[in-house]
Amino acid sequence: MPPLVTAAPRQRRKDARPQELLDAALALFVEKGFAATRSEEVAARAGVAKGTLYRYYPSKDELFKAMVRENLSVHIAESAALAAQHEGPIAGLMRQMMQAWWAKVGHGKAGGVCKIMMIEARNFPELAAFYIDEVIEPSQRLIGGLIERGMRSGEFRAVPIEATVHLLIAPMLHMLLQEHSFGDQGLCHRTMSAEELLDAQMSLLLHGLLA
Amino acid sequence: MPPLVTAAPRQRRKDARPQELLDAALALFVEKGFAATRSEEVAARAGVAKGTLYRYYPSKDELFKAMVRENLSVHIAESAALAAQHEGPIAGLMRQMMQAWWAKVGHGKAGGVCKIMMIEARNFPELAAFYIDEVIEPSQRLIGGLIERGMRSGEFRAVPIEATVHLLIAPMLHMLLQEHSFGDQGLCHRTMSAEELLDAQMSLLLHGLLA
Amino acid sequence: MPPLVTAAPRQRRKDARPQELLDAALALFVEKGFAATRSEEVAARAGVAKGTLYRYYPSKDELFKAMVRENLSVHIAESAALAAQHEGPIAGLMRQMMQAWWAKVGHGKAGGVCKIMMIEARNFPELAAFYIDEVIEPSQRLIGGLIERGMRSGEFRAVPIEATVHLLIAPMLHMLLQEHSFGDQGLCHRTMSAEELLDAQMSLLLHGLLA
Amino acid sequence: MPPLVTAAPRQRRKDARPQELLDAALALFVEKGFAATRSEEVAARAGVAKGTLYRYYPSKDELFKAMVRENLSVHIAESAALAAQHEGPIAGLMRQMMQAWWAKVGHGKAGGVCKIMMIEARNFPELAAFYIDEVIEPSQRLIGGLIERGMRSGEFRAVPIEATVHLLIAPMLHMLLQEHSFGDQGLCHRTMSAEELLDAQMSLLLHGLLA
DNA sequence: CATGAATGAGAGTTCATTCAT
DNA sequence: GATGAATGAACTCTCATTCAT
Description:
The structure is a homotetramer of 211-residue chains. By secondary structure, chain A is mostly helical.
């Protein structure tokens, strides 16, 4: 009689393989770049042999694409749902979404995907298109929609949507790149935490710089 | 009237070679990344043979470093001089500097160097330190100084310096990455020009989003 | 009766590879010199592809070093043992050792290593030191000891040790170089075999040239 | 009226060029080996530019051959003349010739040629044949002739010519290789000078080792 | 004639990918 | 399915040789 409860460890491992490989690929691609990461390293980090990687992904390129696809659009939907059911002032929602994005995406591994997409966009045009369609444009539409809501309700001044969207996205991107490119080498010293910085930037954005 | 006896072509070429090679390297490294660019391609684009590259730069790494050094620190000094001799409201100066930086650095070839530094920082820690010392920190100090001036003169509200600096830099970096990563593939459709966008973002920053 | 189930060929090859590569390297380095031998040739002679060589030795230099270490110091110990357990006249022992060394080292592939060490000593100072420590000095000590024994027992005249050691080693080295440098091209015609020549030289050494 | 006494310095240089180049080539080929010596190094050492070398010798190979030819057979003739006109015991003549060869050939630059011929014989078969014809065989014939003279006059025992010739040449070759391969790196310590060693070896050869 | 900038064939080395075990 | 030994295309770099100046 086969065990009813747990799968055999070997089986469990096997099911987890693709995810483990994608995680390893993500970490290494972000840290060292796509070209500078050897496929054997990815396999080793996932705890398997070189050849095993190729049982799951037919090439390094495909591994990269799978890794990007796996780690992208997840949080966009969440944020959209949050936005849809929100009532009251938009400013607070935005602040909340910014912090949530940073905590879940920017600061974590998914943030690395954003960095690496910027870098490799030229080498993976189809992926770049995919990224724009699935990430950039939905995000811009989501934020753009919020700004329109805020303007309609009178919470916000009449501002150009496109520029405002850019201005809201830019700080997070900046922080992300600082973190993933120069972050952990003690090269970059900040007096405020990332969260404090983002919050302060949001306040500035809302109230403006002029006295 | 041009000189009747020009320098011998051979000699003229020799003097121009380093610059030609650096230009070729810049273009290719920005377009394809450091690792994905073959040194022979750089030579070919500069119109010379493979071996000639190595007469001027002892390795691909050194070529990269030279290319970075060549294209950085040039415009920092200019901006600092502009700021030092400026009188009157800071806001206008900032707008002006933003546009100037975009025109001279962000939009042009030097902007590509910023992108590529993000990518290769981890692979060239020594160069990353150089970049932070020569580019990032001076820029932050320059902009931070302007904000302090504005606050002392009463032009600006009392704002946290660090967050404000980040918020001023972020839009330019964002635009730069859009341009250099997704720009010339028709993937990214904008309704405003880069200059208009930056200007609109500056206005937003000054006046704030809230009604 | 051979075993019915032999080890898998793939595995068998793997165990044999280092030795096969060292043998190929020895043959080619001796024949053509270190620099003139392409690493791909070594691989080809060992029956593998270029890349395979680098799975076993990280560089051509390391391959060379491994090849030298592999082929030295082996026979010194044998000779020393032979000498230690010998009783009776030294002259016979010397004659015997000379012939043994020629048969096992000088004439064979190991002899080529001696030749190649002469050539490459300047390019591998660390290896030259190793060779002096492991081969030259032990040999000199061994032979010097025998001469002292012969002098103490009254078999030999009172002779200067150092000069005598040199004089005993020289003929073998000379023969070795003749063989490995001009040998198999039909350039060098001898009327006596190497063994006869060495024996005759030994006799001469013992009895002297004068009437 | 042209100068009667000295040629113009430029002219003097030009005439000396070939010799200077050959000297430089000799020194470097002996020190580093043929393959490891770059032709530019040879030119630099001769105080000319890379291209100039090729005005005198059409290739690195030809330079090598010229260098060998230049430095070979010179002293054989001298020794032969010395031998021809010698009267009295052969032993003294041999001792004298040995010392003279060491002083003029073995120890000096020509000695290096002998070393490098051993090494490169396989890569330059025609040169090897030339070397055998012009150096090895005349030397052997010269020494062989002396031994025959000594035997005929009763000064020497009846010995096998070939073996005796080898035995007389071997010590010098041994010394030469020690000197040129391991010599100037402090790796090889001797208590006697080369001249003393050769003299002691000659005595040993004459009187034999046995009591 | 001398020069040295330029060349490009060729060598060492790496690593994505394959496939026998 | 998993493995890792083997492969060879591709890449960086060197250096003998050429030739315009």
